[in-house]
Structures are given as C-alpha cells and as structure tokens.
Design a protein that fits this description.
77% helix, mainly alpha, single chain, elongated
Length: 75
C-alpha cells in the first residue's frame, strides 16, 4: 500500500489513518463476534461455512493489524 501511496503522491494525515484503524478494529471485532454467535446458534448452512470462516479469518487478521498499529502509535 505504501508504494501505491507514493505513486499517487498523496498521503493520509495521521489523524485520519488512526480514525480508519479505530473503525476497522471495531468492525472486525464485531464481525467476529456476530459470526461466532451465528455459528453457535446454527444460523449458517454447511455450504456457507467455508465463506463465513474465510470472512472470520480476515476479520481476525485485520483486528491484529489494527492492534499492532495502535501499539506502535500509542500516545
């Protein structure tokens, strides 16, 4: 992503980047919670589990990236 940013010649102000990370973290954690609740209650069909699992994995990865960003940029 850094390369694309450099090519475009634009940068995102830190406050905006932090806001994006904060929202992304909340969305990711909430999505994981919803997926876990849905699967515990049997709301997902078997053929949907693969896609739901991939989405959950992506949300966990995004949340971890957000946590890393936050820990590196603590005030």
């Amino acid at each position: 992503m850094g390369e694309a940013k450099q090519k475009a010649g634009k940068s995102v102000p830190f406050d905006q980047a932090k806001a994006i990370v904060d929202v992304s973290f909340r969305v990711s954690r909430t999505t994981v919670s919803v997926i876990d609740a849905m699967t515990q209650r049997g709301a997902v069909k078997g053929e949907e589990l693969s896609a739901i699992g991939q989405l959950r994995d992506q949300c966990v990865q995004a949340a971890q990236m957000c946590e890393q960003f936050q820990s590196e940029h603590e005030e």
